[in-house]
Specification:
2 strands, 165 residues, 61% helix, mainly alpha
């Protein structure tokens, strides 16, 4: 769909630069928490979770909560998740290309994703100019990076969300 034809909020939230910055924040927090590159497949979970308002608002306040116990208490987050993840695949791919092209993200030898040579993070000054919804997406993506780093393997995390790698 052409950018001009997209609804304004969709064009803003799915903007490749914004989504690339979200992926950068996710990878940064994942690496900080686990000391390893983020599994490539988890990038396809992070954005569908962070960009979806109902799911984002259901996220726990901290990483102390187990992903699996939280998911059991919040079964509604699975409704439509697989389809949302599938439909956002082009958005994630475009954002990833944007970040890699600008050396903000890179691929590790094992296929994971790590921080590149240049930052693409969301600066506090820029974050203050965002809408509340966009700021919430940034916060959720950071939380997801730390939380999913503690949650196990990419395949078990994806299974908890009802999708296959």
């Amino acid at each position: 769909m052409l950018w001009d034809a997209r609804p304004r909020e969709e064009a803003h939230l799915f903007n490749p630069a914004f989504c690339a910055a979200l992926l950068h924040e996710f990878v940064k927090e994942f690496q900080k928490a686990k000391g390893q590159p983020a599994p490539y497949a988890l990038l396809y979970c992070a954005l569908p979770i962070a960009l979806h308002g109902k799911t984002r608002r259901a996220l726990p306040g901290s990483t102390v909560t187990s992903l699996y116990s939280w998911r059991e208490r919040n079964p509604e987050v699975l409704v439509g998740f697989a389809e949302r993840a599938r439909s956002l695949r082009p958005v994630v791919q475009e954002a990833l290309r944007f970040a890699i092209d600008r050396s903000a993200l890179a691929f590790a030898e094992d296929g994971g994703v790590l921080l590149g040579d240049r930052a693409l993070s969301v600066a506090r000054k820029f974050e203050e100019t965002l809408t509340d919804d966009a700021r919430d997406c940034v916060a959720a993506t950071r939380l997801l990076g730390r939380w999913l780093a503690k949650a196990g393997t990419a395949s078990t995390i994806m299974a908890a969300w009802g999708i296959k790698p």
